[in-house]
Specification:
Blueprint: H1 2-11, E1 15-20, H2 23-28, H3 31-41, E2 44-49, E3 68-75, H4 77-86, E4 94-98, E5 108-109, H5 113-121, E6 126-138, E7 146-150, E8 153-158, E9 165-171, E10 174-181, E11 183-187, H6 195-198, E12 210-216, E13 226-229, E14 234-238, E15 246-250, E16 254-258, E17 263-277, H7 283-291, H8 298-304, E18 312-313, E19 321-322
Parallel strand pairs: 1-2, 1-3, 3-4, 4-5
Antiparallel strand pairs: 6-7, 6-17, 8-11, 8-15, 9-10, 9-14, 11-12, 12-13, 14-17, 15-16, 18-19
Helix pairs in contact: 3-5
């Protein structure tokens, strides 16, 4: 098991943890100091990384040392995306402590710091493996692709803000549609609650092995989100007669310009991201809590408070009147 291999590392040398956060958080409060102190009391050697510059698209990102047992992220989902670059294609798990806004990927809130560190010290956690998307960019005339990846999403947008980019969409080399648009988002299940959700895409549970494509302001009759299985591939071509070049961005970090005639292929990566889970709280609970979903509808709530009675209707004046 994965947990056992991490225990083996700890038994044969100093336990090493990496704390990823913001310079702003280190300078403005005591949360980072508290986390580092608790890790050191648990016999961890701690390295702090508080400023991760976005690497170039297609470049190899630096990874944490091989003896790293865990990466503790203090921040929001954006900080976790930065930390994901440090553990890409490794077996090192990430534990997120939310100091941001929504914090979908985080396991704990800042006030639960001691609850987060204690199980880590005792290896009392499970691993939630998250699907990663692999992207190949074929520039015009290229014999090899430029490769990159994304935990959340890959966006292909217009380079010229005043024009549309003309795209052709294929699934498993079968043409599905073509249209002018502001761009498209290809999202993993993890990213389905992020940019893709804001653009009207559905939420996918993390254990679903699939990719979704969501068009952005497409000038077309058929421009609905598409969901494909993990064995399939999206291919997106920037048409030669497009009025704008393209621009690609992975996880809001690694980006570059794309000329007309470029093909972008997205499929499931062989690598996964490992999130340390301590609470065992189902994703559905997390979804309801983070989005503050109205579990009780307004009609039910009104009936409970006596605001609406059966047989009562509301005319255009807004005043209730008895139904027949």
């Amino acid at each position: 098991m994965y947990e056992s291999s991490r225990k083996g590392l700890a038994m044969h040398g100093t336990r090493h943890a990496v704390v990823v956060t913001h310079t702003r958080l280190r300078e403005s409060g005591t949360v980072v100091e508290e986390a580092v102190e608790q890790l050191r009391r648990a016999d961890f050697e701690v390295t702090i990384i508080d400023n991760i510059e976005a690497p170039d698209f297609g470049s190899k990102t630096p990874v944490v040392p091989k003896n790293t047992e865990i990466v503790v992220v203090l921040g929001g989902d954006g900080t976790i995306l930065r930390a994901a670059e440090l553990v890409h294609c490794t077996e090192v798990p990430i534990l997120g402590v939310n100091l941001g806004h929504v914090g979908f990927l985080a396991e704990f809130e800042s006030f639960q710091m001691s609850e987060a560190i204690r199980p880590i010290a005792g290896h009392d956690y499970s691993i939630d493996e998250r699907m990663i998307a692999h992207v190949d960019v074929w520039l015009p005339g290229a014999t090899e692709p430029i490769e990159d990846w994304a935990l959340n999403d890959i966006t292909l947008e217009r380079a010229d803000r005043g024009k549309m980019v003309e795209l052709s969409i294929r699934v498993d080399d079968v043409e599905m549609s073509s249209f002018g648009c502001d761009g498209v988002i290809v999202s993993t299940p993890t990213g389905s609650t992020a940019y893709a959700f804001s653009a009207g895409g559905p939420i996918m549970w993390p254990n679903v092995k699939a990719l979704q494509l969501v068009p952005l302001a497409a000038h077309a009759l058929f421009a609905r989100p598409l969901i494909i299985g993990s064995g399939s591939t999206f291919a997106i071509d920037i048409l030669e007669d497009s009025t704008s070049d393209g621009w690609i961005c992975c996880d809001g970090r690694r980006q570059r310009a794309l000329p007309k005639g470029t093909r972008v292929e997205v499929r499931e990566s062989k690598c996964t991201l490992r999130l340390a889970r301590l609470s065992g709280v189902p994703f559905t609970n997390r979804l309801v809590t983070k989005f503050d979903l109205p579990v009780v509808g307004w009609r039910e709530q009104a009936r409970k408070t006596g605001g609406i009675h059966h047989g009562q209707s509301f005319p255009r004046t807004g005043k209730p009147e008895s139904g027949k």
